[in-house]
Amino acid sequence: MKNIRAKFAAVVIAAAALVALPVAASAYTPAVPPAETATLAPGASAPFTFTGFAPGEPVTFTLTGEGVGDEHLALVKAAPTSTQVSKTATADGAATATVTLPTNATGTYLLTSDSPSTDAETLAITVAAAGGGALPATGIDAASMTGVWIGGGALLAAGIAVTSVAMIRRRQADQA
């Protein structure tokens, strides 16, 4: 009886730990530095304006990511590279760069503005999921499961054969 109580207590403690574990895990909130982000669909263009520059000063925009080219800020998908374009700040201290992503863009692009009077600022441009946010295709197809089905069938057949032989031997031993 004492052994059953100990086992029951262990099960109750384990169940309580499983219930309390998600609460304890969610109590920690990591500190994430504030970041400027934007989302842009593959193949889309958008202007991004940075402010705080001196009127009329040169502003250098640098775009880093897959397929960055000179003709556009983003041209084709390739190894991460970067390109620069210079703009002049307006009278109110703003400068705008237009980013055009390739139709097969993925991941994140970084647009950085830099000028003589300000520290560099970076904007992370995340590529929106293709297909309007549809879930990506995951998992396996039926053709790749052929080996599993054949192996499982062979194991099942072997198990039936072993069980049948054991039953026949037991009957023969009982009759003798």
UniProtKB/TrEMBL annotation:
Q: Which region is the signal sequence?
A: 1-27
Q: Which keywords fit this entry according to its UniProt record? A: Membrane, Signal, Transmembrane, Transmembrane helix
State what protein this is by name.
LPXTG-motif cell wall anchor domain-containing protein
| Transmembrane regions listed in the UniProt entry | 148-168
Which superkingdom is the protein from? Bacteria
